[in-house]
Amino acid sequence: MEIERLDPVYVNERLSQPPFVTIPGVVNVRDLGGYSSTIHAGMRTRSRLVFRSAELSSVTEEGKLKLKELGVTTVFDLRSDTEIERYESPIPEVPGVQILRVPVFKTEDYSPEMMAKRFALYASGKTEAFMELYSQILDHGGLAFGAILRHVKDRPNEGCVFHCTAGKDRTGILAALILKLAGVADELIAEDYSLTRVGREPARQMVMARLAQVPLFASNTEAALNMFTCRAETMIAFLQLLQDQYEGVERYLERYAQLSPDDIQEIRRNLLELQS
């Protein structure tokens, strides 16, 4: 099985530029700061407050020092026990950094039947299939997302990282909710989502090895490619879904994350800073 490679020169150049952040041993790390708000003129999302990434299981000692240098005090792990065991990707110990488990899905959501259905949706590559998958994340992830947003509310001067396995879907949905709450334009949210295709290129071999363990992907390169890619139009469709089926980001956070209107306003304030 082989997935189309991105040009290495382009990848290296892009990874050296914002919003990407280099943390040795961790891929697909991005700072959600620096995006202009459309609802608060002259404001942008704060840098070094909220970071998104892939799993931290292989973070190096240098990478741990980098986390502290960035001001990160808390890491939120969206993965399930099943994923951690399946991929043999343990939770690291990082001195001075609290690592909290906030799984989106429960163990029973990883039954063979559920996983077969989920893999089939990914394999199709169709926008409507991803919307079904992303609805599942919204339906199951509210309390996990709420825990992370409460950190932003209660500890606005302490950076945090949130991640799933690849930093694409659960992580991408939460990043979209945060940026949408801050008033970032849909096109920029979609661009952030699509950057995962670049961000996890250094982990290509690991991703391919994991996909090869699933018969559906091992025997179907097109299905694997659909799993690997992150199209901006998929995020645009998701943001429309969020509005149409969940009545927008604020209503979603009230109902599913159990945040009050006052909580939401404070989180938004903490996410923003003046443009320099």
TrEMBL record:
| MF-aspect GO terms | phosphoprotein phosphatase activity
Q: Taxonomic lineage of this organism?
A: Eukaryota, Fungi, Dikarya, Basidiomycota, Agaricomycotina
* InterPro entries, alphabetized: Prot-tyrosine_phosphatase-like, Tyr/Ser_Pase_IphP-type, Tyr_Pase_AS
Q: What is this protein called?
A: Tyrosine specific protein phosphatases domain-containing protein
